[in-house]
């Protein structure tokens, strides 16, 4: 491509940029093409938010509600930030108290809970590898596997954090009705949390985004598949770390 032609192409692209009000992205972004109904951006780690929007659009759900367990941050690596930006609202559950104030600033219309999710209620040790990352976990084996695989990290602190089972979170904070989406990233405890809940495809979320690989790259995919297929869900998509399941 000639330099003059390249300059024209870059100028044309910049002409399509515009100011925006989405949180955490700076003053400009590429506006995208008119045929991109969800826009050109993904907030999720591996593009799960765009996959979820496709799934909900195919189901005729334009503003899906959500329960985001292990929400981590209101914008960065978030499966639900794009949904929020498009008018959806829900409940975000984040155990790390250092991260919760960001939700109040960036997503004030969500309900944010500073608790963890567990198979039962009570308190659990929360293994903190650093102050604000998503590597922190209630599962000691997962935290230890991560630091073994990445020796530049270590477990710096252990805190006692209250935890609630999924069914209790829904009863207390979702009006007893399961939201359209359950996003679950519990760093190794995902299967145990799901197994302790009672929802099925008939009365539960329309879509699930469940972490299948965590910690030292251990996979619970086979266990999750057995559990969720028995409850009436089928896999609809896969990313590096997560599997999206749909009610059938």
The SS-based structural class is alpha/beta
Strand content: 15-25%
Task: Specify the CATH homologous superfamily of the domain at 41-118 and 166-247.
Answer: Vaccinia Virus protein VP39
Distance between the termini: 49 Å
> In the CATH classification, which architecture of the domain at 41-118 and 166-247 applies?
3-Layer(aba) Sandwich
**What name does the CATH topology of the domain at 41-118 and 166-247 carry?**
Rossmann fold
Sketch the major β-sheet: 7 strands, mixed
Q: Which descriptor suits the 3D outline?
A: globular
Main-sheet strand order equals 5-4-3-9-10-14-13
Q: How many helices?
A: 8
Output mean pLDDT.
89
For the CA atoms, what is the radius of gyration? 19 Å
Order of helices and strands: HEEHEHEHEEEHEHEHEEEHEE
- Low-pLDDT segments, ≥5 res: 17-21
Helix share, percent: 25-40%
Number of strands: 14
Question: What is the CATH class of the domain at 41-118 and 166-247?
Answer: Alpha Beta
Question: Topology of this structure?
Answer:
Layout: H1 3-15, E1 17-19, E2 28-30, H2 48-58, E3 66-69, H3 81-85, E4 90-93, H4 100-106, E5 111-113, E6 116-117, E7 122-128, H5 140-149, E8 157-164, H6 166-173, E9 181-184, H7 190-196, E10 207-211, E11 213-214, E12 218-219, H8 221-230, E13 233-238, E14 242-247
Parallel strand pairs: 3-4, 3-9, 4-5, 6-8, 9-10
Antiparallel strand pairs: 1-2, 7-8, 10-14, 11-12, 13-14
């Amino acid at each position: 491509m000639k330099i003059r032609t390249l300059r024209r192409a870059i100028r044309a692209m910049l002409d399509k940029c515009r100011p925006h009000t989405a949180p955490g992205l700076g003053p400009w972004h590429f506006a995208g093409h008119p045929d991109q109904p969800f826009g050109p951006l993904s907030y999720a780690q591996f593009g799960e938010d765009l996959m979820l929007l496709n799934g909900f659009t195919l189901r005729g759900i334009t503003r899906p509600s959500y329960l985001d367990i292990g929400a981590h941050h209101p914008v960065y690596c978030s499966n639900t930030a794009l949904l929020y930006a498009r008018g959806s609202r829900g409940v975000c559950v984040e155990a790390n108290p250092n991260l919760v104030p960001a939700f109040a600033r960036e997503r004030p219309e969500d309900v944010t809970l500073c608790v963890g999710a567990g198979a039962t209620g009570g308190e659990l040790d929360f293994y903190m590898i650093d102050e604000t990352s998503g590597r922190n976990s209630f599962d000691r084996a997962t935290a230890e596997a991560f630091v073994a695989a990445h020796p530049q990290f270590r477990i710096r602190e252990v805190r006692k954090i209250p935890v609630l089972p999924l069914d209790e979170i829904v009863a207390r904070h979702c009006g007893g009705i399961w939201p359209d989406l359950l996003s679950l990233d519990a760093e190794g405890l995902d299967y145990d949390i799901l197994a302790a809940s009672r929802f099925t495809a008939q009365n539960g979320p329309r879509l699930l985004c469940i972490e299948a690989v965590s910690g030292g790259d251990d996979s619970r995919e086979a266990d999750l598949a057995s559990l969720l297929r028995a409850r009436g869900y089928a896999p609809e998509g896969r990313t590096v770390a997560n599997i999206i399941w749909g009610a059938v």
